[in-house]
Amino acid sequence: MLSRTAENLYWLARYVERAEYLARTIDATLRATALPSAYVGKSNEWESAIYTAGVADGFFGKHEQADERSVVDYLAFATDNPSSIRNCIEIARLNSRSVRTALTVEMWDTINGAWIELQQVWVNAPRTRDNLSRFLRFVQETSLRFDGSAYRTMLRNDAYWFSRLGLHLERADNTARILDVKYHMLLPEDEHIGGPLDYYQWTSILRSVSALTAYHWVYRETLKPWLIADLLILNNSLPRSLASCYDNLVRNLDQIGVAYGRQGPAQRHARGVRNRLEHSKMDDIFQHGLHEFIEELIADNSRLGDIIAKQYLI
Q1: What gap in Å lies between CA 4 and CA 243, rounded to an integer?
Q2: Whose CA is closest to 132, among 23, 207, 49, 48?
Q3: How far is Cα 27 from Cα 32, in angstroms, rounded to an integer?
């Protein structure tokens, strides 16, 4: 496979995953801001959404304050935000056009249809709460359709493996960032862990990664920070956990290595991160600092992306 084709497939999957994550982030923030102030405290949930999305520098370069209107516009529709949902779908469609023959009909129809609907319906639609809710559902359904069509219709070859690399690398980054924002930026210093503010912020996080129901299935307890962290970091039965993402990254990198008859630094780095996750325990993570642990994982995840690019995509 040409490196350019692999790169297009890799980034196509990343941008589709990113669009869904942003839609879930906006939806969770809308739910949190609808709660009485006694439950959400003094924290600015819209500001936390900007930090969670990793676009704070660009946003505050154009806006003085984070509020619902400015944040929703910037994360969902802004053309000057490279990571807005609108740009994610447009870039995904551009990448899919470049590798049209490497995609199945179902995958192309999903992306192309989503791009057409975005242009014809959503870009110029009135910015009402009802329209926003429908738009967020449209984005999430597009991602689910694309992921499902890839899983059900693609041959298990290098095209599939490179697209899965993009998906799981993006997913790991998103999960790690929302956990990092929770402990490093959201919780005010005068709030103790386990208070009402803490409870609703954790609920918001679980909704953002579609794991609220999964939490209750696994632990059958009320929300507890260390159990939620355990679910999102170490429990590989949850598809969006860091452990699950790295299981899949290692598996797909190994498949590529076998297909091309050569292992490399990407395989070694991914296995190193997975091994660290497998041998970690939540008691030790909390004792040494959850923020520091996640920061290191974010850096390792970014480093893996750079290694994959140098090894395969350049």
Answers
A1: 29
A2: 23
A3: 9
Q: Using an 8 Å Cβ cutoff, are 110 and 153 in contact? A: no
Identify the band that residue 36 occupies on the pLDDT scale cut at 50, 70 and 90: low
What are the backbone dihedrals phi and psi of residue 124, each rounded to the nearest 5 degrees, phi first?
Answer: -105, 10
Amino acid (1-letter code) at residue 220: R
Q: How confident is the model at residue 31 (pLDDT cuts 50, 70, 90)?
A: confident
Separation between Cα atoms, residue 67 and residue 46, nearest integer Å: 6
Distances (CA, A) of 289 to 184, 220, 292, 293: 11, 26, 5, 6
Tell the residue number behind the tokens 């990092």, with chain if given.
Answer: 180
**Domain layout of the chain by residue ranges:** 3-313
Query: What CA–CA distances, in Å, run from 17 to 54, 164, 225, 291?
Result: 15, 11, 26, 24
pLDDT (tens digit, 9 = 90+) per residue, 173-211?
999 988 887 766 555 455 445 455 566 767 777 888 888
**How far apart (Å, rounded) are the C-alpha atoms in residues 108 and 199?**
41
Nearest to 177 by CA among 41, 295, 82, 2: 295
Give the tokens for residue 161: 């493996």
* pLDDT digits 0-9 by tens, 254-310: 999 999 999 999 999 999 999 999 999 998 988 888 888 999 999 999 999 999 999
Tell me the C-alpha distance between 167 and 275, whole Å. Answer: 20
Coil, strand or helix at 15: helix
Is residue 110 predicted with pLDDT exceeding 70? yes
| pTM of the entire predicted model | 0.91
CA distance 294 to 129: 34
Both structure tokens of 278 = 């497998």
Rounded to whole angstroms, how far apart are CA atoms 170 and 201?
A: 22
- Give me the half-sphere count of Cα atoms (radius 13 Å) on the Cβ side of residue 227: 16
Token digits for 251?
A: 């598996």
Q: Specify the residue for token string 């660290």.
A: 276
